[in-house]
Specification:
It contains eleven helices and no strands. The protein is an all-alpha fold. Helix 1 crosses helix 2, helix 8 runs antiparallel to helix 9 and helix 9 packs antiparallel against helix 10. The protein starts with 8 loop residues before the first helix and ends in a 9-residue tail after the last helix.
Length: 217
């Protein structure tokens, strides 16, 4: 075998990412046009001009094609807590991170546009999957809080704190969806959430104002 014919690893990985994105883009287009439940893997493969097996190699479940940022979504709150600065609490870190996501109109925070949001709302499968992602995100947050406070993973305190913090994020995510489906553009939704989100986080202050504060120095 002529080694000069072997593409460098960087090029190979770039090609994989391009193929994955191509499949995802065609899947999203078809899901929006036809509905998630009525679109088949075979139709997605035909649109992307790849084999059906190629689609399932990149996306083992059909839901993965529609919600291809789910790993980022699940890990986001835990990552924010882990990366919080000295003297900062999980509550303040998550509050600041959410308001920054609102200012950026981040799709992972819920700013996905009306067509995509309606696609999820109209699909029982995707709606159930989204609930599961919220649950997984809360579980990951509980583990991060346990690690941050030096308590066992099954301790009631980090689990309760994660339920409170995860619950606020779930409510705010749903609020963005509701406003999107009502026809409001993202900039307008961001203005509303910039006013409403602090009120939601303020409700947690009596319980979590000092919880998990990272020592300075």
């Amino acid at each position: 075998m002529d080694l000069t014919d072997t593409p460098p690893l960087g090029l190979r990985e770039t090609k994989k990412r391009e193929t994955r994105q191509l499949i995802s883009d065609h899947a999203t287009r078809l899901f929006i046009e036809r509905g998630f439940e009525h679109t088949t893997i075979a139709e997605i493969a035909d649109a992307a001009r790849v084999a059906k097996k190629t689609v399932t190699n990149y996306f083992p479940r059909k839901e993965d094609l529609a919600l291809d940022h789910q790993d980022e979504f699940v890990a986001a709150l835990a990552a924010t807590v882990t990366a919080r600065g000295a003297g900062e609490t999980p509550l303040s870190a998550l509050r600041h991170a959410f308001l920054a996501a609102v200012a950026d109109q981040d799709p992972v925070a819920g700013f996905a546009g009306e067509a995509f949001t309606r696609m999820i709302a109209d699909s029982p499968t995707l709606t159930a999957c989204l609930r599961g992602l919220h649950d997984r995100r809360e579980e990951a947050l509980a583990a991060a809080l346990a690690g941050a406070t030096g308590t066992p993973p099954d301790d009631i305190t980090p689990r309760t704190a994660a339920a409170l913090l995860g619950g606020v994020h779930r409510v705010l995510f749903t609020r963005i969806q509701e406003l999107t489906l009502a026809g409001h553009p993202n900039p307008e939704i961001a203005e509303v959430l910039a006013q409403e989100a602090p009120r939601a986080f303020d409700l947690l202050t009596p319980a979590l104002a000092e919880y998990g504060r990272r020592a300075e120095g």
